[in-house]
Amino acid sequence: MLSSPVLSDGETSVKLPAVTAITTNDLCRSFGEEHAVAGVDLAVQDGEIYGFLGPNGAGKSTTVRMLCTLLGPTSGSASVLGLDVVDAAAEVRLRIGVALQEAALDEKQTGREILELQGRLYGMKGTVLAERIDTVLQFIDIGDAIDRRVGTYSGGMKRRVDLASSLLHEPEVLFLDEPTTGLDPVSRAKVWEEVKRLNEDLGVTIFLTTQYLEEADVLADRVGIIDSGRLVAEGTPEQLKREVGNDLIVVELGQISDVPLDVIKGVPGVTGASLHGQELSVSSSDGAGLVSGLVVALADVDVPIESLTLRTPSLDDVFLAATGHRIEPGEDPTGEQPIDTDTEEVER
Amino acid sequence: MSLAKPSGFATDVISVATRAIRSLLREPEAIIPALVIPVFFYAINIGSLQDVAEQLPGDIDFKAFQLPVAIIFAVTGVSRANVVVTDIQTGYLDKLLITPIRRSALLLGMMIADFVLVFGLSLMVVGLGFIVGVRFESGPLGVLAFLIIAAGWGLAFTGFPYTIALRTGNPAAVNSSFLIFFPFAFLTSSFLPLEALTSWLRTVARWNPVTYLLEGLRSLITEGWVAEDLLRAVAAVVGIALVTFTMAFRSLQKRVATG
Q1: Residue A120 and residue B15: Cβ atoms within 8 Å?
Q2: Is residue A274 domain-resident?
Q3: Domain identity same for A173 and A33
Q4: B residues 6-35 near A, CB within 8 Å?
Q5: Model confidence at A8: pLDDT above 70
Q6: Closest residue on chain B to A174 (Cα)
Q7: Which residue of B has its CA nearest to A117?
Q8: A164 and A195: one domain?
Q9: Do B1 and A170 touch (CB under 8 A)?
Q10: Which of A9, A94, A109 minimises the CB distance to B100?
Q11: What is the distance between the alpha carbons of residues A115 and A107, in angstroms, rounded to a whole number?
Q12: Is the pLDDT of residue A74 over 50?
C-alpha cells in the first residue's frame, strides 16, 4: 500500500506525506459547445480499485485522459498522488501506468520490443529492465508469443501486453480505460484476474473505466457512475444497490405507460416505485411476498402485465434510478448481457 | 515505489530511432520504390538525353551529370511520416505521450532513422554510378561529402511530410506531400545544364535550392573540391532544413498540446 510513497530522483529519496491517490475538484472539459466532462469531484483512496461506470460518451475516457496528462481540463483541477496533472505533468507521468482503450501497440514490433522501449523511456536499462520484463510477464499469460510481432496477436493478447507495459516501471496508480471492451468472455476473465492480483499483491491503486456493470461489480471497491459528464452516484456496489432496495420487481407493461404510482406505493411491503417508459420498478425488502399483492393492485387499476421479474438490484438498476435510463453498452461482441443476479422470471 | 526516473534526452531519441529503424528493416516494400524510381529515371534520362546533352558546349559527362539527379529522386520525400500517422490513428502516439519521453525526441528519433535510410539509399545510387563508370574527381572523401550532403537534403525534406502528418493525421494527405517534390526536382537543372534551359525555366531554377544542391554534388564528381559550389549546396540544404524543421517541430508542439 502507498501510505508512505517515496519519490526517487536517482540521487535522493524524499518521503512524502500520505495522500489520496486521485483527487478532482469540479473537473470540466469541453470540446467547443460539447461539455464532455461537466464538473466531476472524485477522491480515490490509496490501494483501492475505483470503477468509473458509464455508457459510451459519458465522459469516462475524457476524464482518464485528463488524469493521465494527455488532455488539459477546461476548468477545475485534478491531482494524482498529490501532484497537479497540469503543473506537475512530468512527475505524474513517472508515477502512473496507463492502458488506454484499444491497446494501441506498434504491430511491426514484438511484444518484448514494445516492453523494452517502454522500459527505456522510464529510465530503465540492462539487467534491471530485463528482470522487470520477466516479472511483468509472469502477470500476463502470453508465453513465447512475447517474441512474436504484435501484428499476429489477438485482441486479448494485445490488451495483456499493453497491461504489462503499463506495469513495467511499478506505477503507484494504474489507469485502465475500458480494459475488456471487445474481449471474449475468457480473455475478459483473465484481465479481471490480473487486475485483482495487481491490486491485492502489489497494492496498486487502480482507476478503471467500464461500460460493463458486471465488471464494475466484480472488480471495484467503489463505483462512480458517470452520465453526460456528471457523477450521478458513488459508493460501494453493495451500498449503491442497497439504496435501490433489497429486492426489485420489474414489471414490463406492454402498451401502457401510465400507472398511478401512488396506488403502487400504497401496496403493503413496497419501499419505492418508479416508472421508466413502459418499465415499472418496485423495490421491497421482501420481493417474493410482494408479487401477488402487486399483481392484484395492477389488475385493480386495469394495468396489463407483459412480464414480471423478481431479482436483486444490479448496478443497472442503480444507473436507472440515478439517470432515468438504462446503461446501454456499445458493441459487445461477446453478446453478454449486463448482470442479472438471482433472476427469477414470472411470465403472466 | 515507482522504478521510473527521467531517462535522458539521448536515450529517448535513440529509443525512438531504434524502433523506427527496426520497423524500416521489416518493411522492405516501403524502401523498394525509393530504389527503383531513381534507377529507372537514371536509365531513361541517360538513354534519351545523353547524346543531345553531350553535344552541348561545356564537355558534359552526362552519366556524372545525372547521378545527383538520381540521388534527389531517391531521397526526396522518403520519411517515416506514415508511421507517425499510424501512431496517431492507432493511439500508439498517446501511449508514448503518457510516458515521460521528451516530446521533441518523438520526431528527432524518426528523423535519425530517416537519415540512416536516405544515406543508405544514396550509397546504393552512388554504387550504381560506379558500376556505369562514374568516378569522383574529389576522391573517396568527396564521395563521403557527396553522401552526407545528399542524405542531408533527404533529411531536410522530411520536414514537409512530418508537418502534414502531424497537422492532419491523415495518410492520404501525407502521400500527397509527394507533390511538393515535383517543383523542387523538375524546375531546376535536372535534365540539362542551367545555361541550356529556356529563359523562364532558368529564372525559376535560380530560385530553386535544388539547383545549387545539384551543382554542388556535380562539382564533387566532375571538378573536385570547389568551395563556392559546396557552400551553396550546404546552404541550400540548411536553408530548407531550417524552414521545414521549424514547421515540423511547431506541428509536433501543436499535436501534443493538451489544451
Answers
A1: yes
A2: yes
A3: yes
A4: 6-8, 11-12, 15, 18-19, 22-23, 26-27
A5: no
A6: B2
A7: B15
A8: yes
A9: yes
A10: A94
A11: 13
A12: yes
Cα separation of B64 and B45, whole Å?
12
What is the domain-level CATH number for residue A204? 3.40.50.300
Instruction: From chain A, pick out residues whose CB is under 8 angstroms from the CB of B258.
Output: 69-72, 86, 89
Show the cell assigned to A305: 402485465
**Cβ separation of A172 and B2 shorter than 8 Å?**
yes
Cβ separation B98–A95 shorter than 8 A = no
| Closest CA of chain A from B90, distance in Å | 5
Query: Does A315 score more than 60 pLDDT?
Result: yes
Question: Tell me: the pLDDT tens digits for A247-258?
Answer: 888 888 877 667
Q: What is d(CA A176, CA A98) in angstroms, rounded to the nearest whole number? A: 6
List the grid coordinates of A190.
483473465
CA–CA distances in Å: residue A240 to residues A33, A235, A265, A313: 32, 6, 21, 9
Task: Count CA atoms within 13 Å of residue B103 on its CB side.
Answer: 17
Cα A342 from chain centre: 22
Same domain, A208 and A293: no
The verdict on A263 and A191 lying in the same domain is no
In whole angstroms, give the CA distance from residue A244 to residue A17: 38
The x, y and z cell numbers of residue A2, run together, are: 502507498
| A93:B98 CB<8 A | yes
pLDDT higher at A181 or A5: A181
For residue A85, give the nearest of A166, A11, A21, A170 by alpha carbon.
A21
- State which residues form the domain around A185: 6-235
Average the pLDDT over A34-39 and give the result.
Answer: 94
With a cut of 50, say whether residue B10 has pLDDT above it. Answer: yes
Q: How many C-alpha atoms does A30 have within 13 Å on its Cβ side?
A: 10
Whether residue A168 contacts residue A132, with contact meaning beta carbons closer than 8 Å, is answered with yes
In a domain, A126, yes or no: yes
| Rounded-to-integer distance, Cα B70 and Cα B39, Å | 7
* Residues A206 and A229 occupy one common structural domain: yes
ipTM over 0.90: no
Is A95 in contact with B11 (Cβ distance < 8 A)?
A: no
Place of cell 492507432: B90
A113 and A63 in a common domain: yes
Shortest Cα distance, chain B CAs vs residue A332, angstroms: 20
pTM: 0.82
pLDDT at A2 over 50: no
Query: Hey, are the CB atoms on B7 and A90 less than 8 Å from each other?
Result: no
Partners of B15 on chain A (C-beta within 8 Å) are: 117, 120-121
Number of domains comprising chain A: 2
Q: How many CB atoms lie within 10 A of CB B71?
A: 31
Q: Is residue A1 part of a domain?
A: no
Same domain, A171 and A35: yes
Decide if A70 and B258 are in contact by the 8 Å CB cutoff. Answer: yes
The residue of chain B with its CA nearest to that of A70 is: B258
pLDDT of residue B199: 84
